[in-house]
Amino acid sequence: MDGTLAGTLQRTRADGRLPLPTRRDHAACVTSPNQFVVVGGFDGTAELMDINAITVRAAEDSVGWGASVRTVAPRNRTPPGRSHHTVTCHASGRSLYVFGGYASSRGTLGELWAFHLDHHEWWQPNTTGDQPPPRRNHIAALVGGRLYVHGGFNGTECLGDTWILDPQAWHWELLRTTGPAPSPRRGHACEVVSDRYLVVHGGYDGAAHLVNGAVLDTATGAWRDLAAEGGPEDMPTARAHHTLTLAGHVMVALGGSGPMGPLLDMHLLESPPLVAGLAQQYKLMTMAAKLSAVQAGMADVEAALAVTRHRADTAEQQLQLLRERASDLVSLHNAALADIDRLKSRVAAEAVRVVAAEAATADAQLALATAERRLRRTREGGREVAEAARDMHDIVCDLREEVARLRGQLLTATQHQGREAAQLAALATEKQLLQQQLASSQAEAALLRGMLATAEAEFRLALDRQRNAAETEIAAAVEQAKQMAIAAARAAGGTGINGDMDLVLLQQLATATARAETAEIRLHQMERENGVLQADLANQKRHLEQQRQAREAAEDRAAAAVQHMHASELKYQSEIEDLQRQLLEAQRERWRHDLGLQPSRKRAASEPAEQPPPVERRTQGTDTADLDEFGAREQAEQLLWNARPPPEAELEAPNRPQQMAARVSAVLDPTDPRAHFTVQHIESLVVEDPALEVLPEVARLLQLQRRLAGQG
């Protein structure tokens, strides 16, 4: 049990007291054969709830006893302190059960707490069933795995009931007993015998100390009186708060308090049936130990027998393997003897072959000497041939290097020609696009010229109509003003017209004058708009002229690019032809050298150069080198043929200019009854059709012309 070491009781201490804090009314129980715990109590100031474990051991010199005290520190919250309670150890559950007690702040308690001896944790179980009333100075014992609680004091009177707690289900139950139950009491002592009988002795009933006892059979629930015999000096006196402990077959009653005060005596209670039962139990235990020993011996014998059988099986298997290996060895021995015989015959044959080989070696040595003499003569007479062969080899190496160089130049020229061909194709595509754009621009220009001419004619007609209308209106206004002036003069001359008539005439004269001024203002405004339109028309013409000049410059650039492309093509074609001629010359030189028509390099340096004969095509009977050269020539010609530029494709007429021309002819054709020569139709054609792509200034001009036409 872990915790804090509080102290050790030594055998040599005179007072024999444990190093524990002073306390009273605590509870204690045994947890192991040499250990017990002390829980709670009252220290004179407040109630405690600490746990102290006392371990008892024999002294080092085997005289007396020693004890060590260890304070157990719980890992969680400690329950409130208490006194006059009970603590019971559940050995199989490794737990301590604390029930009831008294606290100064809360009075008599009836709660149950449990402490785990391994985990060092307190917890309060949730119990079911009828709960026992609070009590203190009661007894509690664990019998048959269940906790029995009897008697006690509830703060008012003593109790005599018996309660049972099942730790498996945490269920409380009031025990219904039979027989003469002990009277209500508190401070009594109890002990368990044979894990069945609960012995109760002594106590205090509130008026006097008690000396009688009773025994509860937990199997039947029956009480019976404890009948003890002995002399007057051997019988224990009435007492309470003492202990009752079973040691072997003797029950020991120790200490307590009586009517005259504390008691320090000790009494022993022996029961003949109990002694006989214990003796019989000891015999049974001895026989069980012997039986266990015999069973263990039988198990060892069976294990040894199994091991022996296994070893016998293993030995049998090994013997079988040895037999098989012996037969294999016999067959191998016979095969080895046969091999020895064959080797002997082969050795004899080899001896014959060795003799024949020695004779052949002698003949070979003679032939070798003859060959060496011939070789020396050949070496002496073939130096000129070797020199000529070296010269021929040098010439062949030079020709091969020249052919490799020409092939590299041919490959470079082919690649360059390919790039030029790609550029030529790109220029051709650009030229075609420029031609298409030129055609589209020409068609658009023609359409714009026609629309501008139509718009200008209609604008002039509208302007003339408005001008004539304004002049007519001005003349009418002048004439009306004249008539009004004459009428006014007549009125001033005294023709007899009344004042109302004069007022009307003056109003008409003012109206005519205002109309004349308005007409003159409109005429000036139309003249200004005509000037603006003329300026816009001049800007459009200038813009069209700039576009025409840009197209002509683009055509000139395209023509120059095409001319440069054709010049480059002719240049690279001539370079390729020169490379082909050089390659043919190199091939002719090599073929001539292979045929032996060319002298060696030494003679060629002294003799003048001759023109090479014409090259003839080889037949099927040429050697491998000629075939390789002919294949290389065909490959070069195929590369030159593939490197030729592709023929220039003809430009196709685009569909867009044809459609535009058709639409323009449909508008401008006077014989077509579907044609409309109105400003509105031309504006819808020019502005609403995105394919024509007209300038915003032309559209604005046409809208202004339509507005003027609508006002006229």
UniProtKB/TrEMBL annotation:
Region (Disordered) location: 541-566, 595-622
Gene3D superfamilies listed in its UniProt record: Kelch-type beta propeller
Coiled-coil intervals, chain numbering: 298-332, 424-480
UniProt-listed InterPro entries: Kelch-typ_b-propeller, Kelch_1
UniProt entry keywords in alphabetical sequence: Coiled coil, Kelch repeat, Repeat
Basic and acidic residues biased stretches: 542-558
Domain of life of the source: Eukaryota
Protein name from the UniProt record: Tip elongation aberrant protein 1
